[in-house]
Amino acid sequence: MTKITNRQELEREVGQLLALDPDLKALVPDVGAVPLRLRKPGFAGMVEVIVGQQVSRASASAIQTRLDQLVQPMEATTVHGIAEEPLIDAGLSRAKQKTIRALAAAVLNREIDLLSLCELPPETAAEKLVALHGIGPWTAEVYLLFCAGHADILPSGDIALQVAAQDHLRLADRPSPKELAALAERWSPHRGAAARILWAHYARLKDRNDVLPV
User: Fold this and answer.
1) Is 172 within 8 Å of 191 (Cβ atoms)?
2) How many CA atoms, within 13 angstroms, populate the side-chain half-sphere of residue 82?
3) How far is residue 144's CA from residue 115's CA, in Å, rounded to a whole number?
4) 169: number of Cβ within 10 Å
5) Could you tell me where the DSSP H helices lie in 34-176?
6) pLDDT tens digits, the chain, 214 residues: what are they?
7) 92 and 68 in contact (C-beta within 8 Å)?
8) The whole model's pTM is what?
């Protein structure tokens, strides 16, 4: 399985992607500016992804900073043993509190191994992740993209990616997750690089720095 685990590998993937689809070159004025955005695999990395669900990057960063201060170390055993107050004080929604607690229980009960999961084929790993409480396709795919480093994943349920693809491909309407997944087939096996380029393009479209999901 091809992985993106450092800047050199990302630049290799971007180069191969642009050879496959030269039209994307218009979105890449500087290959070195394409965001890498890797996270460490494991429990803490998945918690970061959960925190980032459906909020801006700035909001997620603020919540994550408070959470890291209140929950030390960020491990399944720690989360399993703490009261609700630290999670509430960090700014987590009730749904995310429940998801993180359920994740901690699954790790402790050996229902899931978030590290060994990274070495499974992406489709198999995603199936195991979405079987957990509160983990949907977006969360699973973002974890596999940024924590596991899989090179051929594009989270088609991400609204920013849908908007960026709509603009780049000059579509009349924003594509649905299913439609974007079909459109993204043209970028396989380099969909991870395509996702990063589209997120960067969305940031430019919105003229903001806090719109990327992780």
Assistant:
1) no
2) 22
3) 11
4) 12
5) 43-51, 57-70, 76-81, 85-90, 94-108, 122-130, 137-142, 159-168
6) 899 999 999 999 999 999 999 999 999 877 677 999 999 999 999 999 999 998 888 899 999 999 999 999 999 999 999 999 999 999 999 999 999 999 999 999 999 999 999 999 999 999 999 999 999 999 999 999 999 999 999 999 999 999 999 999 999 999 999 999 999 999 999 999 999 999 999 988 987 544 444 4
7) no
8) 0.93
3-class SS at 150? strand
Q: How many CB atoms lie within 10 A of CB 159?
A: 14
CB 89 within 8 A of CB 36: no
Q: Are 4 and 147 in contact (CB under 8 A)?
A: no
State both tokens at 167. Answer: 């603009």
